[in-house]
Write a structure and sequence with these properties.
11-stranded antiparallel β-sheet; about 45% helix; disordered N terminus
Length: about 725
């Protein structure tokens, strides 16, 4: 019995990765996780997912824009992604007469699909392990402690040298890049084909695509139809080309089948996409630093700012509109920080990482690998040494630079000063015009000076309470010397005297601009001092970066050598990954359980016509009342909206396709629950859930709500 228990404990120590955990590299799938995927229910072969010699599912998964994922769902280049991923394009095409954000947009025909200058869609044509090549080139580097092993410029130059200029010239729209993995212990080269003629095909109204908006952000249960539809166009030869009326819909290598079968609890689910960033290889000291500095400062300072904003928003409808987006942007990262700290404490991530470190120390001692122990010691020392600087930087960023809006005013006064001193009237006027443009950009329709004044007083008081006077921006000394510590009077003086304090002040300055007014302007001096302090802090912290990166690289190398690569996946870095798990609900707390599937009934339960976040379109209510769900309904007659799965996702996975065991599309990922955001550090099997819009709801909205059933005709639907 003792022997059996010892074997079980050894197995647990040797195989720390949980079944649903991981963002796996496709070329390593067979050797790392494929057997587990099949054991969980996958019915495909590994080459159906990733095949370097032929088309596979990966060829239908794309980078949408610069930070989202999308998927190709028809032989004519039709693409699905999230509504929030296509939001800026939908907004760009919206006018008072054609408010597509409010009303939605459906082209109706390909001739009416709308071009989007600047938007790109990127296909991954090839992925190649180039570790040996990169390490050989790095060995030639004669610079001591060079950071080239992580440098995008250096690595991408190596990629271009490897494929040759002729390859890039003969393949229009193709780019190559080399990305580091495992802290710079492994390298892959990605060959990418980038298309730039991307047209908007359709989008539901925000009351569907953004239903629940900021209140429901990071929350489950969820009832959001977060999707939009685009199409990729190419030239006559299928190559990337700028927008032209003569371009044709792309004929892709692969498009996805779409399942109408739906999901059941514990069904196999698999996601592919481009997760942005995780911190799996944090040490215990970094976990504490993240919680005690980064998250604590963000939570505390944003809470103050948000409370002040909300007070003013509730008093004045105009302010509510002006600050709705700012408030939402602030609460987004605020909720994330709360969730991350909750997870760190709930599952004692410090101890989890310490156990991993102790295991490496014991292994290194046994096999005479002192370099890994030294790396850990160095990481511990660096985190300790940078503590004060890091805290000061976070306080400056969250307390001043992100909170006080006037910090965004222009401060490079030299060109205007020179023009005012000179005799060239045209140059003088040109510089004045530039400043007027800068002012209008700062003091736009969404800026309320009285709100900024109030927030500035609150944030500056808290900043000065927590940061010693000698560690504050130099200009802040005037608060004590000139205003006897009265922050309110100090801020009032900024707004009353600065040319940026009000529209009247600015126009008064423009009528008689002087160099002296610029030099003595209190708001400009305030911002310049803040900027100087931030530069000094950043420079001081930068001195730790090289040693930290080198020690971290060595630490991760030790983990890989100890556990072998089969047991570890690299941190996310916005490269193509696969994650798998099951459709499953969860219990966030005792006696509280959330199921795996939401329905249209939940939309109606949340309806609030007085709150823009929960308005339900009349057409959707009509369909609900009539139960006109067609072939998209559940067996019991309800209309599915979203489901949750244990897949390991993060930012960048927005828009990612979610597949069933047969490799068919069952949903589009769009969020995570806040209890699961700590999974960026350590996976939380009991709490981590990806939030996914059910593909049947997407098709229902397109077909029954929007009358765009013609789009479904080009899709490969599986009943």
């Amino acid at each position: 019995m003792k022997k059996i228990i010892w074997l079980l404990l050894t197995a647990l120590i040797s195989f720390p990765v949980i079944a649903d955990e991981g963002m796996w590299l496709l070329p390593l799938l067979r050797q790392q996780k494929f057997t587990d995927m099949q054991r969980l229910g996958l019915k495909l072969e590994d080459y159906d997912i990733y095949n370097p010699d032929s088309s596979s599912l990966k060829d239908a998964v794309v980078i949408f824009g610069g930070g989202c994922t999308g998927e190709i769902v028809s032989p004519d280049g039709l693409l699905l992604t999230n509504h929030h991923c296509g939001y800026s394009q939908i907004q760009q095409h919206s006018t008072v007469e054609h408010d597509y954000l409010t009303d939605g947009f459906w082209a109706g025909s390909r001739e009416k699909e709308l071009p989007n200058p600047g938007l790109t869609v990127t296909f991954i044509d090839a992925m190649e392990d180039v570790t040996a090549y990169v390490l050989a080139e790095l060995a030639k580097d004669t610079v001591p402690n060079s950071m080239n092993f992580l440098s995008p410029r250096y690595l991408n130059n190596l990629a271009k040298a490897k494929v040759g200029e002729s390859f890039l010239q003969n393949n229009p729209g193709t780019e190559v890049e080399i990305r580091p993995f495992y802290g710079g212990n492994q390298y892959y080269m990605f060959t990418k084909k980038i298309y730039s003629d991307i047209r908007l095909v359709g989008a539901p109204p925000s009351s569907i695509g953004k239903f629940g908006a900021d209140t429901d952000n990071w929350m489950w249960p969820r009832h959001t139809g977060d999707f939009s539809v685009f199409r990729v166009y190419a030239d006559a030869n299928g190559n990337p080309a700028p927008y032209a009326e003569t371009n044709l819909p792309l004929r892709p290598k692969r498009w996805l089948q779409i399942s109408l079968k739906g999901v059941q609890a514990n069904d196999y689910a698999m996601m592919m996409g481009f997760p942005g960033r995780t911190n799996k290889y944090y040490t215990s000291w970094e976990v504490a630093e993240r919680r005690d500095i980064d998250n604590t400062v963000r939570i505390d300072m944003r809470e103050l700012r948000q409370q002040a904003m909300l007070e003013e928003m509730l008093k004045d409808p105009t302010v509510r509109i002006q600050y709705a987006s700012k408030y939402a942007g602030s609460t987004n990262a605020y909720k994330n920080a709360i969730g991350a700290s909750w997870a760190i404490n709930k599952r004692n991530f410090e101890q989890v990482k310490k156990t991993e470190q102790d295991r490496l120390i014991a292994w290194s001692t046994q096999y005479n690998k002192p370099e890994y122990i030294e790396a850990l010691q160095q990481l511990q020392q660096i985190v300790r040494d940078r503590k004060d600087l890091r805290y000061r930087l976070w306080m400056l960023d969250e307390g001043i630079m992100r909170s006080i809006e006037f910090v965004r005013i222009p401060t490079d006064t030299q060109p205007l000063s020179d023009a005012l001193k000179g005799k060239d009237k045209k140059e003088r006027q040109a510089q004045i015009d530039l400043w007027e443009v800068a002012y209008q950009r700062f003091a736009n329709k969404d800026y309320a000076p009285r709100v900024d004044r109030k927030i500035a007083k609150i944030m500056l008081k808290e900043y000065r309470r927590l940061i010693p006077a000698q560690s504050q921006p130099a200009y802040f000394a005037e608060i004590d010397t000139k205003y006897k510590g009265d922050v309110d009077k100090f801020i009032d003086n900024l707004f009353d005297k600065s040319l940026f304090g009000s529209t009247e002040n600015f126009h008064r300055f423009l009528s008689r601009p002087t160099v002296k007014a610029l030099q003595e302007d209190p708001m400009i001096r305030f911002v310049q001092s803040v900027q100087d302090e931030r530069k000094a802090l950043a420079a001081a912290l930068e001195k730790f970066e090289t040693d930290f990166a080198l020690a971290h690289r060595m630490y991760v190398k030790g983990l890989l050598e100890m556990d072998k690569e089969q047991m570890n996946f690299p941190d996310a870095n916005f490269t193509l990954r696969l994650t798998y798990g099951q459709v499953k609900g969860y219990s966030p707390r005792d006696c509280d359980y959330y199921g795996h599937q939401t329905t249209l009934e939940g939309v109606m339960e949340k309806e609030d016509p007085t709150n823009w976040e929960f308005v339900v379109p009349s057409k959707l209510k009509e369909l609900y009342t009539a139960k006109d769900y067609g072939r998209y309904q559940l067996p019991e007659g309800k209309m599915p909206v979203a489901f949750a799965a244990t897949t390991h996702s993060t930012g960048g996975n927005s828009g990612s396709p979610v597949f069933n065991a047969d490799g068919q599309l069952i949903g589009i990922n769009f969020d995570r629950n806040w209890e699961g955001v700590g999974g960026d550090i350590q996976y939380l099997p009991d709490y981590q859930r990806s939030i996914i819009v059910d593909i049947r709801y997407v098709l229902f909205i397109m077909d029954k709500y929007a009358g765009a059933g013609y789009l479904l005709d080009e899709m490969d639907l599986v009943e």
